[in-house]
Write a structure and sequence with these properties.
512 residues; 22 helices; elongated; 5-stranded mixed sheet; signal; transmembrane; membrane; transmembrane helix; 3 domains; D-Maltodextrin-Binding Protein, domain 2; single chain; Bact_solute-bind_prot3
Length: 512
């Protein structure tokens, strides 16, 4: 520390950007720390300023450095970005230390806390205790963007509902919107409603103070500081003062008070320092080429593009499955719309009132209720019956899309059939359908546009897949921009095919 202070430049303002982190902090006399404001008891924004274990730890560090402290509120999705952009000097923001993140910043060891991810849910939402993550396949689980274990859930087929902050996630658990939710036990367990229970616990995750790549000297000083805070019980006392569970911290205190960890000169990293969690995702064969393409786009056009779905095998699998399900869903929805349009056309013009009246009642119900409500109701029925598999969800979604759009198209077929009869023609259903071809095509295209709503009931189509990918890549702009492009192309393709079919039907009618 004395050597660093002696080497400080005289003009700090002009040279701050080029200094190592510790030198910059000492030179400017200010430590900027990124903290959470939505994660009690670790970090919580209050009218009197940030409170919790992490702001208190930041205060101890600033006091040891002899500098003023400035808090910068971050969240799970943007904390690493804030560090990389230089908006903060270090993070104390519930940041888990993983091998995947080791390439992004310096994670100080010893760690200051450890959590586990728990899946909590309403007592009736699934079996009392799940043995493994496979039990979540096809079920919707609420998570926050950027959580390191989201990929584990997505790999096992869980459908992820994303929330931007931990506070919003907890609120949705309390109001019953989330039948299942996954997050750190430190967040969920203290605030768990009586109607919820722990379904599954997995993935121990150490939390670390994080410094940018330009701060190796700061990281070494912080490492020595954390050793002392563990050994003398200061960190343990901070945790007790803020209502944080202390079993893990007591184990750390015992470790740093005993050989070989109590003597920095003979420190044994294997025995004294916990390793990061190994959550590295297997890269695809084209990952390197994708990264070079991203870099070229950034340098050539200044466009920040992140093609997360092409970099890891799990993301690519989710992406390709999403594309396949979307195309199959659209094909099924279009076919169901056409078939049900003919069925409604026949039923609405049937001679028997016992057939005609129920069809008109169904048509009225479809026309007066938003499709999203029908889809949500269908999802609730599936869940209550225990049929929440991707295949079952796909079949139900096809039926709902076909009913909603086919009933409206069927009204056009019925009107065309009635006009044929009024003009003295036999009123064949096929002839009526040809005359109502424009309306049928319009509602078939509408079924294509409405297909993303099927993600509400667990269909793993592209919207659901991209949501899952964004949950662990923390990248949403490019991901959902590509989603928009895909659906624009898909709808345009369906419309083009329908126009060709209409043209052929018209030529056939004119020829006759």
């Amino acid at each position: 520390m004395a050597a660093v202070r002696a080497a400080l430049p005289s003009d700090c303002t002009a040279t701050a950007a080029t200094l190592e982190t510790l030198s910059r902090v000492l030179c400017l006399g200010e430590l900027r720390v990124g903290i959470r404001g939505d994660y009690p008891p670790f970090g919580e924004a209050t009218p009197d300023g940030p409170r919790g274990l992490e702001p208190a730890l930041a205060g101890r560090i600033a006091e040891a450095l002899g500098v003023r402290l400035r808090f910068v509120e971050v969240n799970a999705a943007d904390r690493m970005v804030a560090l990389g952009d230089g908006r903060v000097d270090l993070l104390i923001a519930t940041t888990g230390h993983t091998l995947q993140r080791d390439s992004q910043a310096i994670f100080v060891r010893p760690h200051y806390y450890e959590s586990r991810t728990v899946v909590v849910g309403q007592r009736k939402s699934m079996p009392h205790q799940a043995r493994d993550l496979e039990a979540l396949s096809g079920l919707t689980v609420c998570v926050t963007v950027g959580n390191s274990t989201n990929a584990d859930l997505a790999v096992e087929g869980a459908r992820l509902m994303l929330f931007s902050s931990a506070r919003r996630l907890v609120d949705q658990v309390h109001n019953g919107t989330c039948a299942l939710a996954a997050h750190d036990d430190t967040l969920l367990l203290p605030q768990l409603p009586a109607s919820y229970e722990v379904k599954l616990s997995f993935a121990p995750l150490p939390w670390s103070v994080v410094v940018g790549r330009d701060g190796p000297v700061m990281a070494r000083w912080l490492s020595r500081t954390m050793q002392r805070l563990h050994a003398d019980g200061a960190l343990l006392r901070l945790a007790e003062a803020h209502g944080v569970a202390t079993p893990w911290l007591r184990q750390q205190q015992a470790r740093w008070r005993s050989p070989p960890c109590d003597t920095p000169q003979t420190l044994d990293p294997v025995r004294c320092l916990d390793p990061p969690r190994d959550n590295q995702l297997v890269p695809t064969r084209i990952a390197g080429s994708v990264e070079r393409l991203e870099q070229w786009l950034q340098e050539r056009f200044g466009v920040d593009v992140t093609l997360a779905m092409l970099k890891t095998q799990v993301a690519l699998r989710l992406f390709m499955e999403g594309v396949g399900y979307s195309i199959a869903l659209v094909a099924g929805a279009v076919l169901a719309t056409v078939v049900l349009a003919l069925g409604f056309g026949a039923g609405l013009t049937a001679r028997s009132r016992w057939l005609r009246w129920p069809m008109w009642a169904t048509l009225l119900m479809m026309q007066s209720t938003p499709m999203v409500m029908f889809m949500a109701a269908a999802g609730m029925v599936l869940a209550s019956l225990g049929w929440s598999t991707p295949g079952m969800a796909w079949g139900v979604a096809v039926i709902v899309l076909g009913l909603f759009n086919g009933s409206n198209a069927g009204q056009a077929v019925a009107e065309a059939r009635q006009r044929l009869r009024a003009d003295g023609h036999p009123g064949h259903l096929r002839t009526a359908a040809v005359r109502a071809r424009a309306q049928i095509a319009s509602f078939a295209a509408n079924a294509t546009r409405g297909s993303p709503v099927a993600s509400l009931i667990g269909v793993p189509e592209l919207l659901a897949a991209q949501t899952d990918i964004a949950s662990f890549s923390s990248e949403r702009v490019t991901t959902f921009a590509l989603l928009l492009i895909f659906y624009m192309a898909l709808v345009s393709g369906v419309v083009a095919v329908l126009q060709v079919v209409q043209g052929r039907l018209q030529r056939a009618e004119n020829g006759r």
